[in-house]
Amino acid sequence: METTREHLGLRAAAAGWKAGHAAVETGLLAPLAVDEAELEALIQPMVARAGAAYMEQMLAAHGVTPAGGIRLWTIYIHTDVGGALNQAPDGGALLR
To answer: How many of the other CB atoms lie within 10 Å of CB of 47?
Structure first.
């Protein structure tokens, strides 16, 4: 079965969201008493590296074009940050 671009996009979104939640749950990202913009700025470098690793996996596994890889990277980053911001206010209680 061929994996479509849409499926890869959904998988990237799910992986990013889960990674954001897990970063809070595991303590890798400790919720801080900062506003959302400051928290986002703090986690962007970590998210960018994780997104790049995810993109490389998808390039190798599915023959995604470089442009398609950038789209997956962007989706991953956006949803990872969203997942972390969603999880941070309660310190990860949603995953427990």
So the answer is: 23
> Structure tokens of 90?
């309660």
Q: Find the domain containing 43 and state its range.
A: 5-91
The tokens describing 23, both together, are: 């970063």
In Å, how far are 4, 91, 95 from 32, measured between CA atoms?
Answer: 39, 9, 18
Interior CA angle at 59 toward 54 and 75, to 5°?
45
Can you tell me the distance from the alpha carbon of 62 to that of 40, in angstroms, rounded to the nearest whole number?
30
Helix residue ranges, H only, the chain: 5-25, 36-62, 66-87
- The sign of the dihedral angle between the CA atoms of 51, 74, 57, 7 is positive
Structure tokens at 68: 């398609």
**pLDDT at residue 32 is higher than 70:** no
24 occurs within a structural domain: yes
pTM over 0.85: no
Residue 96 lies in a domain: no
